[in-house]
Amino acid sequence: MNRHHGPDRRSFIKGAAAAAAALVANPRMALAGHPVTAPASVLYSEVAWRGLVGERFKLFAAGGAATILTLDAVSSFPPPGPGGSAFGLRFLGPVIAGFAQGTYPMHHRALGSFEMFVTPGGPAGPAYAYLAMVNRLTP
Prior knowledge:
The chain is of the alpha+beta class. It has three helices and six strands, in the order H-H-H-E-E-E-E-E-E. The chain has a single domain (about 30-135), classed as Thrombin, subunit H.
């Protein structure tokens, strides 16, 4: 009797290999099948993000359901090295049940689709905060 409720090891390895091959074949494909369309020059620009404060973003959490988040603040941080930049983003929205830090597909009407590592930030007044850090090293 198999008491294991997930895929067996062989199925898992086959699935992981197929996913890795798909990402190698098309590296601009984000999680959950959302193509990355946002230009990197904008995603790594603190000035560009400051112009988006108050704008709405869709975050696609586990299961593919979209949650609307509003960019609330952009904070400057010391650069990680010469010519680099660092800044933080704070999004506000509803509590997402079971949300854990990780890389999630996101979408903005003007930017397009992109992936971002987002962490839960905790209660923020009547909303819940979600945080992202952008660190850019330049050669």
